Amino acid sequence: MQSTLFSSIHLTVSQVTFHIRKQLENDPTLQDVWVEGEISNLSRPASGHVYFTLKDKNASLRCVMWKTDAARLRLNVLDGNSIEAHGKITVYEPQGQYQLIVNLIQPKGEGALYQEYLRLKALLEAEGLFDVERKRPIPQLPRVIGIITSATGAALHDMLNTLRRRLPLVRVIIAASPVQGVEAPPALVKALESLNKQDPDVILFARGGGSIEDLWAFNDERVVRAVAESHVPIICGVGHETDFTLCDFSADLRAPTPTAAAELATPITIQDLGSDLLNARARLSSLTLNMVTEKEVFVSSLMSRLKYISPDRRIQSEYQHIDELFRRALSAVTHRIQLRSSHVNGISKSLLSLSPEGVLSRGYAIITRKDDGTVVSKVSQARGEMKVRVSDGEFETIANRGPNKPT
Amino acid sequence: MAKSKAAIKPVEELSYEEALAELEGIVESLENEQSPLEESMKLFERGQALVTHCGVLLESAQLKVQKLVGESVVDFEEESE
Known about the structure:
The structure holds two protein chains of two kinds.
Chain A: H1 13-25, H2 28-31, E1 33-43, E2 50-55, E3 60-65, H3 67-71, E4 82-92, E5 97-107, H4 112-127, E6 144-149, H5 154-166, E7 171-176, H6 184-197, E8 202-207, H7 221-229, E9 234-238, H8 246-250, E10 253-255, H9 258-264, H10 270-309, H11 311-354, H12 356-360, E11 366-369, E12 385-390, E13 393-398
Parallel strand pairs in A: 3-5, 6-7, 6-8, 8-9, 9-10
Antiparallel strand pairs in A: 1-2, 1-4, 2-3, 4-5, 11-12, 12-13
Chain B: H1 2-6, H2 16-32, H3 37-60, E1 64-69, E2 72-75
Antiparallel strand pairs in B: 1-2
Helix pairs in contact in B: 2-3
């Protein structure tokens, strides 16, 4: 090891890279080769060149297909396609990357990963892991929602924003886990176990979009089984609409995306709750109003029945009787008074005939002295001016000496 | 009814779910049972208080976000993008 410093070979980066390139480009095996793998990270920029990565379970290889070769492509290549690519290995010196310059592509049937996927799917399906009867219902109104996803991905933000918008009443517990790479499957299994202990109402098991390799952890047998074994219902939202992972099958509900998973976990939104509340309030008021009205109607019908049978009617007829009696008494009394008054009239007539006026009408007169008003009933009393009252008036006279007058 | 009587809690202490469940119970019992008027009025008043309480909870609801660290639950700080 001491010799390191004094090693005889000193090269620049360019020199090393050039050397590697020479090594690779002089290897006949690498200059005319068919490479089998699955396409991912496919990109076709405006230049017309096609870039992609060929992958299998354990390795990946950068590939470039120049515009002229790409134009001759009869196959419509897509991410996830398993293909065989023919070409030669070169080194792209600016990035120190070796790559396959592809001139031919031919289909390779179903890719090896897909074969593995199908094998595992058939196995677990036969075991009954995906049976509909195993699916548990998703709660309508969860209080606690568990989330298992990457702590850094956009998926988490999407889900939290969706939950915040739809049902901010819930409590969220996040169990962060890597979602790709070799460490992902055991970490996802561990997160499922830990989160189950917190006993949320539902778990969102999610990851944003990616290539089939990126999503591979969700096809891992350990993870697929752990999802099936969770005692908390699981909504699986991995990748995009078109991605089906085995976890989608073993979960209780599949969502096309993480956002959709958050939506499916909150079938009832806070807006629904608000309008339910308004309904409940209206029902409550109308119920109580009806109840009171009903009672009022009942009470008033009782009132009229009560009136019918009440002593009121007796009392009224008693009143009538009393009225009748009173009327009779009154008329009897009136009659008697009339009788009395005609009797009194008779008496007053005879009384009248006895009055001086009555006597006057028979030709008598009353004479009074004008000076002192003395009634002249004797000759001796007659003197001076006097008034003579007869039946219909009076006149004056003067007393003369008469023969009968005593002196 | 016996159940809600036994568990009578001040309305303000109820969670949204508890308040909602009780409210549903009250509306149902008012719809289906022939309880004495006075009791019905009491139920109605309780129902109104529950409606108000639920409304307040809905208005003020804020998503509570936590995370698991090992086996314990701690508050989760969302990094702003």
